[in-house]
Amino acid sequence: MSKPTDPAADPIIVVTDLVKQFGRFAALRGVTASFAPARMYAILGDNGAGKTTLLRALAGLNRPTRGSVAISGSSNVRSVCREIGYMAHPSLLYDEMSGTENLRYFARLYDIEDQARCTAVIQAVGLDPQLTRPVGQYSQGMRQRMSLARALLNDPRILLLDEPFSNVDLRSAREMVQLLASMRDMGKTILVVTHQAFLLEGAADEFVWMEDGRIVSRTQDFNSAIAGQV
Amino acid sequence: MKRLFPVFGLLTGVLLSYALYLALVVAPTEQTMGDVQRIFYYHVPSAWTAFLLFFINFVASVVYLIRRNMKADVVALVAAEIGVVFCTVVLVTGPIWARPVWGIWWTWDLRLTLTLVLWLIYVSYLMLRRFSSSGQTPQIAAVLAVLGALDVPLVYFSIWFFRTQHPQPVIGGGGSIDPRMLHVLLINWAAFSCLAALMFWSRYRLEVLKREVEDTQALEALLETPRGSR
Amino acid sequence: MKLTRATLAKDLRLEWRSKDAINSMLFFALLVVVIFSFSFDPTAEESRQIAGGLVWVAFLFAAVVALNQTWARELRNQVLDAYRVSPAPANSLFLAKAFGNFIFVLMLECLMTPLFIVFYNLRALGPAYQLPIVAVLGTWALVVNGTFFAAMSLRTRAREIMLPLLLFPISIPAVLAMVEATTSILTGEYSARFWIVLLAAYDLVFTTSCLLLFESVLNAE
């Protein structure tokens, strides 16, 4: 159920000739792309294609060697960091605290005093806010969902998710995808890096394929996205 | 500029030989210490040269922190390396001088102790540079250099006061110095400074070349055709 | 700052919950005191002369073991990324960690000091009220730089050896001051005033520098 890309919408993320090198290893070799608001993009590619590096550059976690990243019109990612939610394969949570305690703490990083927000966000991802079990004892599915909840705390306009479904059971993964689709419908821009493209069939608006540090194709059709890759 | 190098090298060689001649032959023999005292003409200029080089490291590090100028980082690195060399000379000549004259290997003499602490700080600086991952090295090393430099006045005062509370023998003899000895001392300092400048220039060029090679290799890696294009 | 307080509270709460770290550190501190006491067994007269040095070296070693754990919890699930992505100022994080370490090391010192007093039959001949001042200023000097260098070491290989390697040389004036101040107070032979002022100056210089420079170390890339 993909929507036609609205050419009139101003892109919310603009990447211009982005190059990122770690010594001699070029992780990104000149990526140029723009991403429209209220869309879900699936970013696919083999290991080492540069997907994680691209996402981290968008999150402001690494500094480009050359080129630029503009988010919501600003080329300084740090200044718009309140509009970004980031999630990675490590949970970015404290194993020793419960989900609610974790979120209450991270909410403070965004000056959010409202505890109801934490509860709401935990419920939105399908978890129980009353659960006192420390996050370290969660199953992978629960942990990824709690990590997503943390990313949603500040109600970001942009969600950057790096392999959110990795090692997650199918049911949890599908529920997460549904949640993401509803977030997209509410106007959020979502970029999902994943190896499990099939999960996003019917949910993602566009499939972006990366190879060796460049974007080599973008298509709205799931089947053609997958076809050439087998 | 490059052609000047061998000329400068030759001049330095001449100056050093002259300085050596002055120190070993021309300079008057010290009345209490005898010929051993002649090591003073190596001990003191090495100390001054080392301190000057460490000051250069501090300035270059500050410049790097403000401007992120790669050349400043190279200057900081080279200055630290050569400074440590001259520092080592001071720390070796000190005990060699002290033992026959005062009967002790070491004393918490102001200059000697300050040199030892500086040596420790800059060796730790060099180790940090060696052990950190290459992308971040200049930034972190520059921060350490600034902290180290801020430490120096504190080191000085702490040792100075320590010595007033616990009087120690003074290596190098306080008090006035015979004008002929002063003359030899200054010539030796000039010679050592030239030697330091020579080493600095040579090492600087080497490091700049090395980085240029690395940059070229990185650029090549960037432009390489990806294997198995679609 | 509220965030500093919240972070400190969180750290203290977590430290309290998993008492492993606390217990092992306390036991380590005890062992250090005992080993030192076996190694240096002076008369009462001599002990006042050397106790200053002994005590602070022991504190230094205990502090390094504690400091190495500063960022351990943040490293485990790349939690630092969550900080870096958020608008939270890096300084709040640094201060919270430094205060946490400060409290922890002071606690260790409070355990080790009575033991030293017992093993060495220590008695202060000078103004004993100055001892806590020296302890507070000296501990902060070690902890503020230790927390900073622990963050720097995160970016290096051989992380755990890097911390003492960086910390010890720069701490020399502070350690000298702590030792001399303590010895002056114990022996009553000199005034510790200069050393206390030096420690205060050291604390001021390095607290300011670390606060100014921490952000660039956290985000170095």
Give a short synopsis of this structure:
Chain A is an alpha/beta fold.
Give a description of the structure.
The complex is a heterotrimer of chains A (230), B (230) and C (221). With 230 residues, chain A is an alpha/beta fold. In chain A, 28% of the residues lie in helices and 26% in strands. Chain A contains 6 helices and 9 strands; from the N terminus they run βββαββαααβαβββα. In chain A, β1 and β2 form a beta hairpin. Chain A is globular, with a radius of gyration of 17 Å. The mean pLDDT of chain A is 88. With 230 residues, chain B is mainly alpha-helical. Chain B has a domain of 160 residues. In chain B, α2 packs antiparallel against α3. Chain C has 221 residues and is mostly helical. Chain C has one domain. In chain C, α6 crosses α7, α6 packs antiparallel against α9 and α7 runs antiparallel to α8. Chain C starts with a helix and ends with a helix. At the B-C interface, α4 and α5 of B face α7, α8 and α9 of C.
Oligomer: heterotrimer
Element string of chain C (H = helix, E = strand): HHHHHHHHH
Largest sheet of chain A: 6 strands, mixed
Termini separation of chain C comes to: 27 Å
- The helix content of chain A is 25-40%
> Looking across the biggest beta sheet of chain A, what order are the strands in?
5-6-7-3-8-9
What's the overall average pLDDT of chain C, rounded?
89
**Domain module tally of chain A:** 1
N-C termini distance of chain A: 23 Å
Number of helices of chain A: 6
Question: Count of DSSP E strands of chain A?
Answer: 9
Shape, per Cα inertia axes of chain C? globular
Low-confidence spans of chain A: none
- Beta-strand content bin of chain C: under 5%
